[in-house]
Amino acid sequence: MSLVELFLVFLKAVMLSSGGLQALPILLDDLTVQRSVLTYGDFATAVAIGRIAPGPNGLFVISIGYYIAGLVGAIIGAIALSLPPLLAIGLVRAHQRLANRPWVVGMTRGIASASIGLLTALGYNFTVPLIPQPASVAIMLVALAVLIALRADALVVLGGGALVAIGLYFVGVPLA
To answer: What does the alpha-carbon distance between residue 14 and residue 86 come to, in Å, rounded to a whole number?
Structure first.
């Protein structure tokens, strides 16, 4: 994959999402399914590294870029991540005038609904490799319950999952 292609994949994912984790399904499809640049495991590792970094949710784009092309890939990810918000500054005033129009409200709801569908598909793709290992599924379900019921910080849940996995390793319970 060329650096230009990598930039365009990142830019597409960032442009078609409205922030946060919504770029993940697009990146997963482009980089693992269509182009086979990363395995599912490598993709998940790069996303996890990006998620534990301090700062906005979209930093996983930078870690994915680094995983694919080193420092240059990380820089390409940072540029692709920063470009749309910079371009959107000029659109903020127009949006303030159009925000209450029915077609804008409908478009926003449609984008949100499609994003939920994409995130659900991404969750399914991440869950399938865990199914053969009941301990991994148990950690996932407990993490999901903690996130939903307690609204715990994602970093705390990730850390808890890591500690449980280390403990299970030492008692001989396989996770992978």
So the answer is: 12
H-type alpha helices, the chain? 3-15, 24-28, 40-52, 60-88, 92-98, 102-127, 134-150, 154-170
* Per-residue model confidence (pLDDT) at position 167: 95
Q: For 69-121, how does the pLDDT look when each residue is reduced to its tens digit (9 = 90+)?
A: 999 999 999 999 999 888 888 778 787 888 888 998 898 899 999 999 999 99
Q: What is the pTM of this model?
A: 0.56
Q: Give the CA diameter of the chain.
A: 61
E strands, the chain, are none
CA distance 12 to 97: 26
CA 166 → CA 50, 114, 135, 162, 163, distances in Å? 21, 37, 12, 6, 5
Q: Are 69 and 76 in contact (CB under 8 A)?
A: yes
